[in-house]
Design brief:
Its EC number is 5.4.2.8. This protein is of the alpha/beta class. It folds into two domains: about 150 residues, Rossmann fold; about 100 residues, Eukaryotic phosphomannomutase, cap domain (Hypothetical Protein, Haloacid Dehalogenase-like Hydrolase, Chain: A, domain 2, 2-Layer Sandwich), CATH 3.30.1240. About 35% of the residues lie in helices and about 20% in strands. The chain has ten helices and eleven strands. The strands form two sheets. A seven-stranded mixed sheet has the order 5-4-3-2-1-10-11. Helix 9 links the parallel strand 10 and strand 11. The longest helix is centred in the middle third of the chain and has 17 residues.
Length: about 260
């Protein structure tokens, strides 16, 4: 899909900029910088419609984006891969993994995860290994209550030992009869959700006829196969932009909208 941005043919209401959070607008689990806020809200927003899609729940997204200002500045916020839909600061829809899978399957899955984690040895383990979200389960072998230093150390350890990928392989084998997708994102965890409930789920909302978007640009860092940005990055309805950091995101946007000296 070719972009007409440089030709100036598209109005701001026709361009949707859809951002991942971790590694795209912020450092992993960090807060957005004041410089990035100023750029997004004062320089970029007059040129396009802004949206977020992330795997975390709304509270965690708002924590990273300095509170409720994001609800005002972003036209759309899609926590939990878009299973929760927020438009102009108001929740307009949600989907539930509990209803979709049923309690029996859900408990069988969680019990297996906890048994598996009890048998693996890591340099450290902390708390909150299974986080139940509206549209997914988030599994963290080290535990989400680890410190930032422990988080960084686990990421490096995982790159060598493949802890998350081996666990995913075991879950795929055990639950081959359940229609689940496994997606590694961030530094310490992976997401589990029904097929089709990846970040492309949010596109069902923004492609409704009442919107007039002619281009949907997605920005994310985990775009390789297995990453939680891969499906939406490759989706034919989006123009994908792979980024390495918030600074990289800003650089690409400055070039797209000729904002370098604005």
């Amino acid at each position: 899909m070719e972009s007409n941005l440089r030709s100036g043919k598209l109005a701001p209401s026709e361009i949707l900029l859809l951002f991942d959070v971790d590694g795209t607008l912020t450092i992993p689990r960090g807060s957005i910088s004041s410089a990035m806020e100023t750029f997004l809200y004062e320089k970029l927003k007059p040129h396009a419609t802004l949206a977020l899609v992330g795997g975390s729940d709304l509270d965690k997204v708002l924590e990273q984006l300095n509170g409720k200002r994001a609800l005002k500045e972003f036209t759309f916020i899609f926590p939990e891969n878009g299973l929760v839909q927020i438009e102009k600061g108001e929740e307009v829809g949600r989907q539930s993994i509990q209803q979709h899978l049923g309690e029996e399957t859900l408990q069988r899955f969680i019990n297996f995860v906890l048994r598996y984690l009890s048998d693996i040895k890591l340099p450290v383990k902390r708390g909150t290994f299974v986080e139940f979200r509206t549209g997914m389960l988030n599994i963290s072998p080290i535990g989400r209550q680890c410190s930032r230093q422990e988080r960084n150390e686990f990421e490096a350890y995982d790159k060598v030992h493949g802890i998350r990928q081996r666990m995913i392989d075991a879950l795929r084998k055990e639950f081959h009869d359940v229609d689940l997708v496994y997606s590694i994102g961030g530094q310490i965890s992976f997401d589990v959700f029904p097929h089709g409930w990846d970040k492309t789920y949010c596109l069902k909302h923004v492609t409704q006829e009442r919107f007039q978007f002619k281009e949907i640009h997605f920005f994310g860092d985990k775009t390789d196969p297995g990453g939680n940005d891969h499906e939406i990055f490759e989706d034919p309805r989006t123009i994908g932009h792979k980024v390495r950091s918030p600074d990289d995101t800003r650089r690409i946007l400055e070039e797209m909208f000729d904002l370098k000296d604005a």
